[in-house]
Amino acid sequence: MASGWRLLCHSSNDPNIPPLLVKYEFGKSNYKIWLTDLTHVWVEILDQRPLVQRAWELEADIDPIESDQRQMLLQRIQDSIDEVKGTKLAISTKDHFKGIVLTAYSPLPKPLKPLQWPFFLAPSSGTTLTNELVLPLLVEQLLSRRKVASLLVALRDKDHVIGKLTDKMQAEGIELGKVFPGAVSSKSGRKAGSKEDIEKSIQGLGTFNEYQWQSLFTADPDVPGSYSSLLSQLFLQGGSLSRFNFNEQCSEKAWWEHISAECGPNDDGSEGTLQSHSQSPTANEFQVGKL
Length: 291
Hints:
Blueprint: E1 6-7, E2 21-26, E3 31-36, E4 41-46, H1 48-57, H2 67-81, E5 88-94, E6 97-106, E7 115-123, H3 126-171, H4 176-179, H5 195-201, H6 210-218, H7 227-237
Antiparallel strand pairs: 1-2, 2-3, 3-4, 4-7, 5-6, 6-7
């Protein structure tokens, strides 16, 4: 199962950590996971053999040797990224490892101890960021333009049909005021009778004004001033990325070298200081196609 890019919901309150995006691909015996701050990208690709080896090293209570148990293990790991209730994600670093450690915490039925699974995300090249985020976003932008163009054609077709219907009704002596009894002339306050008066009173009856519609987004786009706010609105509202100047720039410094240590569940399985996800799996993701 593959996801689109989404905001990473983690438990750290460390101010050094910027907003992060994450996406994954989970197979029956493997996974790929990408993490980005829009400047850098980190990746882990784990196949069946190293997956099983890591589970043994962690002494996980789910034995991934069997196919069904392996799929259960992968599902529990995925649950943490999907923000399933009771799961957690923590960000940290590891000595002699230049990447980022993203640890997934997922509860298991008692008496099994909670699953603690570390993703060792290694730095990747700019080509990965281009292939996994930039180019798919350009494709999405192209598709969005085509969708808008198609919608405008459909609106013009509807305007043409509605115009012919109202003209035919007037030619046959049918009072439009009877068809639209709620129409009121904006100037006189009386019942509107002419086609022009009714078009002013009934939203959607008049010809669609493309230029007026476009001006709503170009004159005052109301785009957040920081990229963190932009990401929040994008993934909460399902919006689209555009090119604007931001007061807050994407970080170029190695912020991961300054993050504090994370706390997870205690050895006895009880919760540590990390806050768990409290909602159902999120559907707020920015889906971009693959090239």
